[in-house]
Amino acid sequence: MKNEIIDPEYYLIEGEKKNNLGDVLQGMVAKQFLNPNSICINREKIKSGNYKPGLVIANGWFQHNTEEFPINENLNPVYISFHVAKSELLKKTETRKHLKAYAPIGCRDIQTKYLLLFWGIPAYFSGCLTMTSSQLISKDMKRSNEILLVDNVDHPIPENLKLKLNEILASEIIHLNHDPKSNNLQFEEYVEIESQNMLQLLERYKNAELIITSKLHVALPCLSLNKKVLFIHPNPSDKRLSILKKYIKIYHYNEIENWSTIPELNFKQNKFLIQAKKIEKIIHTSIKMKSNSMKTPMNIEDYIVSLTSKINSKILNILRILIINIPFCPIKFKQIFS
Prior knowledge:
5-stranded parallel beta sheet
């Protein structure tokens, strides 16, 4: 019997700035669903690279270099946990045409969902693949009772807040960060080393008593591990955080100054787990079908989500055109959608 030829399967990790382990984790959680020989692509070279035809799990933050989108025509994308970082990405006709061809698009946050819908691109809220992070490590626990404070070079938690939290907790707080340690290496080495570093951090999070963080991709994997998470941020209204607000409360930096104790940390775990299972199902089915399963849904729940995304995209696209053509159209709206 001849060996079966298996098409390549791909996942993405940001490989230019290399300044956030959260980007590495987003690739790792996609890789876990693919075949053992899956190939990692530098997200910032997703168009210009030389790739054999194959399926790619296209999740994460798009994109530092908007000239690297749409993606290489050899790649067959499943867009899920998709986040548009720069609205100008959608200014190009070829980008909108590409996304419509692979829609509906599973979005990581509500802002991205409505950005696509207003451009007439079917989209739905999928949640984030890092909500499945618990599958990357064993469930065995060696409780450390550590209290961990985790930030990174992009968003450091101010020193005065660290001191205040130390005072409130009356316990040692261990400061960790999501800064890669090998960002001067070639891409393949960087991916290998930082994936191991990320696994070590996940093990440490799993055994900790409390994780305090300002990083989305610290909070979501820790919630996946069912850990107590205190999420603090200088701008809780940041649209990227809309996913997190569904499951836990976000506290403004300014609130902490008035605390005498840590507030009760409520976690809507059942709601979180239901969404994580939905993501897993979409990924598994898409890999089996070798295309976006939400395009031709196989069950009534997915059919309703897919149909609703198509209807909403038509309605909101008409609304976008009407708003742009009124004399008092908001300047910001016109900048984004014209």
